[in-house]
Amino acid sequence: MTTAWSGAALAEAIEAFAPGSVEKSATRDVWLNPNSILVVCEGLKTRSEFRFDLLSSVTAVDYIDHFEVVYHLTSLPMNASAVIKTRVGLGRTDASVPSVVSIWRGADYQEREVWDLMGIRFEGHPNHKRIMLWEGFPGHPLRKDYVTYDQSIETGITASNEDGV
Amino acid sequence: MAIKTQPVTVNLGPQHPSTHGVFRMRVMFDGEEIVDVEPVFGYLHRGSEKLAEERTYTQVVTLTDRMDYVSSMLNNHAYMLAVEKLAGIEPSPRGVWLRMIASELQRIASHLVATGFLLQDLGALGTPLIYAMRERENILDLFEMLCGARITNSYLRPGGVFMDAPDEFWPALKRSLVDILNTIDELETYLSGNEIVFSRTKGTAVLPPELLINASITGPMLRASGVDWDLRHRNPYDYYDKVQFNRILHTASDNYARYWVRVQEMRESLKIIHQCVEQIEPGPVRPSFDEIPRLIRPPVGDAYVAIEGSKGELGFYLVSDGGISPYRMHVRASSLINLTLLRDMLIGGLFGDLFVTFGSVDLNMGEVDR
Amino acid sequence: MGQSFLDNSLWRNVYCFLAGDSTDCATRNYSDGVLPAGMEWLAFLIAAVVVIALVINGVLGGVIVLIWGERRLFGRFQSRTGPNRWGPWGTLTSVADAIKTMFKEDVVPADADRILFNLAPVLIAAPALLVFAVIPFGIGTYVADLNVGILFVMAVTSLTTLSVLTAAWSSANRIAILSALRSVALLISYEIPMALALVGVIMLAGSMSLGGIIEAQSVPFIIVQPLAIFVFFLAAMAEMARAPFDLTEAESELAAGYLNDYASMKFGLFFLAEFMAELSTSAIVTTLFLGGWKGWEPIPSHFWFAAKLVLVLFVIIWFRMTLPRLRVDQVLKLAWKGLFELTMINIIVTAVLIAIWPEPTTSRLWIMAAINWPVAIISIWAVSKLLGTTQYENPVPDPSSPVYPVATSAIPASAVFSGDVVVGPTGMDGGD
Q1: What is the pLDDT of residue C419?
Q2: What ipTM does this complex have?
Q3: Of B41, B218, B340, the CB nearest to A132
Q4: How far is CA A138 from CA A62, A133, A134, B330, C432, in A?
Q5: For C121, phi and psi rounded to 5 degrees?
Q6: In A139, C162, C285, C350, which residue has its Cα 20 to 30 A from C270's Cα atom?
């Protein structure tokens, strides 16, 4: 059975090698400072007490006043899982976070997808392009303030995708 | 004497017979050799994750059917587990057994499609594909008995399945299990030892296990490199801890190993179904509407559940704001993530191996683009 | 002229019907002809046109039947019915297909070299038809019995390379060019084993005329020359670009290869040429190795020829249905490292045997067969060992020493999240 790290224990263990990187922790989740993502992830992957060698999933959630990037990590040697989150783009401006492609190559397409659909920049991504939609597509559709063409007709708000395609 | 050659860029897809849908690759060839590959996605993007935000939790099931359309049951399964975890629903035992049977049947169907199309890509002009499809028809007929639909099943509901299997399902299932086993044997005698299949796939697109794990690749691809990682065994969900099955491993990590692992996994799925049929007991297939309302409003929170899909780890990440529809749904699509190493697999290979390697990844464009 | 063409029953019947005055016809019991005396040249001309029309239309009709038969067989091999809507057992499906093909729009790509683009279908269909000129369909039934028949066949069939290259180059399509490069490599490589495989046959028969070779087969050469038929058949499959050597079309890789930009009847000509090549290859195999029209009386020779032809066609279709495609390097390796050696062995062994018995009688042919078969089996086995792929030694990993450590250790018990609370906080209540 895969065991899940509790948020408190994980936060404590992360603080031990990267002081000041944890913002807070709760049940299963640890919120990290976006600037320390690279250091922490490197440690989570290589340090013998974590050994998170598989990045299960990278995704992002739009919480209106900020975005949250969620990393689901799995450790094959220890059969353990953990969730780390980071809050970016407070006040919906300048949403960006360091890319973890240099640590886990599996983040490649997932980060591109997050950028494409949610509009969060991944600094240092080797191929930072849209993946599902075409270059030049206006807006990022998974954002809560994205207005589709149909919605713009109903509400009178200008569509994010002004071509109405 | 080296002959000076000029690389040629060829655009393969989205309209191409072997791209398993609408995948597109810009490939640079030096003669027959592949120099560079750039995959282009998005021709089947339907915005399922956005659509899910406007539907109730039960209605989203229909969207998951259409993601990986050759393993709809597995998508249903993963999604429902996430909903149950999010809303804290305790499923009914009979419903769980039924959805395990459905999932394993779907896994066989998906592996049959993968095997058939791999051999189609090898140039076998349809014969093995049609034999594989014939068996898949059997499974789809069973699904039709279960839920009335063949491809887009929408069979699962929070806490179980929406309808009990009819009486005629069980004898039909027994017959089909024998037929499927015969077809697998047939495929194996015909193909596993075939010199052309073997010489074409042995030693092509080899990936070391460390690289596979680093690139988040899971499922049969990972097991073909010898890593014993199967979520049904390592993190048993539902009643997978009550059934015995072997994990199929191969050390070669080449195209042949991937093919071989899939074929053997079908046999293991048959074993699991037999055990499920033995252990299933009468009872309700889902909690009554008194226990679980028709309109679920999970408490505020998030949940991530991953199952062993036919192509790898299939995960659903759901965020609830306490309302009737998911605040955010994210799918960890194994088809997309398994393509991460496509360039590493293809570069330096020959054109003839391009689509074979591509087929051995076993991807489904519905899941890649969602 | 010497009127030697009158040995040919096709010619003779038409010619003597028209010009019965001729002494040659009279000696063969033909009554007076239709045309007045002195018009033999006209009779000759009409006979030529009639014979050529007969053979061409016969072949095209055969192709129509072949396409239907092949599709029906495909259906059987793939456990489905195959075409069965038009006509009894779907026999008219090919006719419907032909009509549909002719009425389709003739698309020419904007960048295409129009002259070559239009020429290529003709270039591929003409040689495919020309081969039938030398094939004896029965006793005395042929268009021409060349004394260099085999050379003619080899020369004409190798023209296919040129037309494929023309088609690919003129359509200015990159996939087509890749296909043409494969085609050239493939066809040129397989010309050599194909020609060399026939050397043994020519030595045995002492003739290069197809008629002469049939006469020499008191024992069918498939029995006397097992290596030759093995190599020739494989090489012929490659020449036709048939599975498992269908690299040029390679549906799952190159879509349709050099045919990508062809539509309408231009595509139809390529399609016809492909099936004509299949038909002509079967006819050549029948002639050279199965004794051609030879059989037992009273059943006419044409029937025997057709029966053997259908048998060979069946084998070709069977191959196509059951084998996956080889990769281009493997195909070339097979030609140069496998088939080439086998033909050399065959030539040497046959040469030694002929040196011992210069005039092979029936019983001596049987002795040769008894010597050739062990040689063939041993050499094919040796080549397959040399070129074959070895099985994996240890495909299943040892559980005691795993490739990658999985679940070997565990996280400290104090750090485990014990999950009564399934719902964690989100950014909604976690934000400050």
Answers
A1: 63
A2: 0.86
A3: B41
A4: 18, 10, 10, 21, 31
A5: -60, -35
A6: C285
Residue with tokens 């002494």, as numbered in its chain: C23
Q: Residue B242: which domain range? A: 8-369
Domain membership flag for residue B263:
yes
CATH number of residue B358's parent domain: 1.10.645.10
Distance CA C193, CA C340 (A): 5
pLDDT tens sequence across C306-316: 899 999 999 98
Q: Which of B67, B212, B307, B330 to mutate to test the interface with A (most CBs of A within 10 A)?
A: B330
**Residue range(s) of every CATH 3.30.460.80 domain in chain A:** 3-132
For chain B, what is the mean pLDDT?
87
Instruction: Name the residue in chain A with its Cα closest to that of B235.
Output: A1
Is any Cβ of chain C less than 8 angstroms from the Cβ of A78?
yes
A79–C407 C-beta distance less than 8 A: yes
Residue-wise pLDDT tens digits, B261-284: 998 899 999 999 999 998 888 888
User: Packing angle between helix B72-87 and helix B93-121, nearest 10 degrees?
Assistant: 140
Is B257 among the domain residues?
Answer: yes
Instruction: Say if residue A148's pLDDT is above 80.
Output: no
B3: in domain: no
- The three-state secondary structure class of A27 is coil
User: In this complex, do C427 and A68 lie within 8 Å of one another by their Cβ atoms?
Assistant: yes
Q: Is C390 on the interface with A (CB under 8 A)?
A: no
On the question of pLDDT at C1 being above 50, the answer is no
Which alpha helices (H) appear in chain A, and where do they start and end? 7-17, 37-46, 107-118, 149-155
- B130/C80 Cβ within 8 A: yes
> In this predicted model, what pLDDT tens digit does every residue of B230-246 receive, in sequence order?
888 888 888 888 888 88
Mapped onto helix, strand or coil, the DSSP state of residue B52 is helix
Report the distance separating Cα B331 and Cα B321, nearest Å: 18
Domain A3-132 has CATH 3.30.200.20: no
Residues of C in contact with A34 (CB under 8 A): none
C407, A31: Cβ pair inside 8 Å?
A: no
pTM of the model: 0.85
- Give the total number of structural domains in chain B: 1
Closest CA to B296 of B323, B316, B317: B323
